[in-house]
Amino acid sequence: MNNYIPPFIITNHMLEYVSSIMKKIGKLDNYKDLNKMPILRRNNRIHSIHSSLAIENNSLSFNQVKDIIDGKLVKGERKEIEEVKNAYKAYEMMNKVNPYSIEDLKMIHGIMTFLTVEESGEFRKGEEGVFDGNKCIHICPKPEMIKSLMTNLFAWMELNKDTIHPLILSSVFHYEFVFIHPFSDGNGRMARLWQNIILSQWEDIFAYVPIESQIKKYQEEYYQAISNCNSKGNFDEFIKFMLKMIDETLGELVIGTSKEANHLSPYVQKLLNVMENEPAMNTKELMTKLGLKSRASFKNNYLNPALKNGLIKMTNPDKPTSKNQAYYKDC
Predict the structure, then answer these.
(1) Residue 129: beta bridge partners?
(2) Which CATH architecture has domain 265-329?
(3) d(C-alpha 310, C-alpha 302), whole Å
(4) Nearest in space to 323 (alpha carbons), one of 284, 274, 296
């Protein structure tokens, strides 16, 4: 078992997807500068959380998930609301964990399933199966096998992280993790999050690429790919499926960010430029930097559009007309 090699073959079809994905990443130069698009960044994070939870039958809507994350009161099942809070905390930890550490994986699972799963942050001790609705598509390995299977998987990733493309390696992990099903609950959520963590260490934009939303659209095919791979004894179909999901998600982002960039007025862009690397500034200071004399022009063309789109924030949001009000660029 120490020389474990996952059963898959890198095919031309996979490499074509990798090439397409790389080209799309190259087109996302605007998206890479995430501090220019905090609303898009935040919405994508919420879409990831909502979709990943919805795949696991959480019934809360996107707007309800958004309200919970924003700290608002939402009517709903206590467990479902807790799942949203937990998922947000787990996703916020993405850049603080080692994707090749089993202990970090357990730690994030503990956050993801806090107060909702009895064996939170610990490998399961009972028998489990993977279900698509009421249909069992996979009988999971026995609990006494989990430690060695997970050790072998993480050892394989550590050994091959510099030789196998992250897009393929992360997809192999995703399938293997679902197959092993190491936790009593939360395995699907963890598999999807951890693939993003692996990818975001390679390209940081993946911290805000909502691959989960695309999987939700193709949920039936997602489970079918898992089932087919279980039957065939190799991962090829699932790897191609995940590469397709990533490729399509990035394709939608290329279109979306192009529109976003086009909507960023030259006035707002100029305001953002003068605020770059600066602490909070009041209206007078900003107008001086911009060379403006008309307060009305400043508010209508520069300040208000930037505030509306979440590009800058107030130091005292509870008192927007305060004489001590200042503004800073949202990072």
Answers:
(1) 139
(2) Orthogonal Bundle (1.10)
(3) 13
(4) 284
* Coil, helix or strand at residue 110: helix
Angstrom distance (rounded) from CA 199 to CA 224: 24
Angle ∠(279,88,55) on CA atoms, nearest 5? 145
170-207 pLDDT, tens digit per residue, is 999 999 999 999 999 999 999 999 999 999 999 999 99
> What tokens does 14 get?
């996979």
pLDDT at position 266: 85
Query: How many CB atoms are located within 10 Å of the residue 314 CB?
Result: 15
Task: Give 12-262's CATH code, choosing from 1.10.287.3510, 1.10.3290.10, 1.20.1420.20, 1.10.230.10.
Answer: 1.10.3290.10
Q: Which two tokens stand for residue 95?
A: 């850049």
**Looking at the whole model, is its pTM more than 0.70?**
yes
CA distance linking residue 59 with residue 51, whole number of Å = 10
CA dihedral 255, 260, 266, 268 (to 10 degrees): -160
Structure tokens at 51: 């979709």
- The tokens for 317 are 């949001």
> What residue segments make up the domains of the chain, in order of their start?
12-262, 265-329
DSSP, residue by residue, 51-100: HHHHHTT----HHHHHHHHTT----S-HHHHHHHHHHHHHHTTGGGS-TT
Radius of gyration from C-alpha coordinates of the chain: 22
Axis crossing angle, helix 78-91 with helix 38-55, rounded to the nearest 10: 130
- Please count the other Cβ atoms lying within 10 Å of the Cβ belonging to residue 237: 19
